[in-house]
Amino acid sequence: MKSVLLIGLGRFGRHMAERLIAEGNEILAVDINEERVNDAIDMVTDAQIGDATNEHFVESLGVRNFDLCVVAIGDNFQSSLEATALLKDCGASLVLARANRDVHAKFLLRNGADHVVYPEKEMAQRLAVKYGNDNIFDYIELTEEYAIYEIPVPDTWVGSSIVEKEVRKKYHISILATKEAGRMNPLPGADHVFRGAETLIVMGHFRDVRTVTKVK
């Protein structure tokens, strides 16, 4: 369990709070908007109305006591930048900030953010890969070149085992799991026999995965 300071209770902030709570973490949520705070007060551990660009208010939060500080402000970049800098000045050990543009990310990183996320950009890229390819059902980017994909079993693999197809040696991908009828089978053994009704959760370079999706 981690203690998290979450600043900003817009759509992204609320979704982040819901997931963090579901993972068993404690959250102090802060927003300048009273209505947003009231809407979230039953969901988070604690909530406060306040201006995260005010130095005295940020100091009063005891920033050093949190394992993670999240700046989820999306509608005011200047406020996001000031809040990020103040958190770091007050001793925050780890600051995660939201950015909408590349230039915003650069300024956030220069002003104290340890990590920056692009929720809209990342989701758009994921959906573009997922819906722009007939043989890719899902996609999670790890780096610019490597990702985790959900793909169908090539027709010529059906009835053969992982070791028989020499998947890692020939295709340079790792099979993390198989999935059938909504049920996941993680880390299948080398003797796993491919079935046409299942899909594969694989990790690899995007070129290698695309090669596999074209195997007949």
UniProtKB/TrEMBL annotation:
Occurrences of domain RCK N-terminal (ranges): 1-117
InterPro entries linked: NAD(P)-bd_dom_sf (IPR036291), RCK_C_sf (IPR036721), RCK_N (IPR003148), Trk_Ktr_HKT_K-transport (IPR050721)
Lineage top rank: taxon: Bacteria
Signal peptide: none
Protein known as: TrkA family potassium uptake protein
Annotated source species: Blautia hansenii (Ruminococcus hansenii)
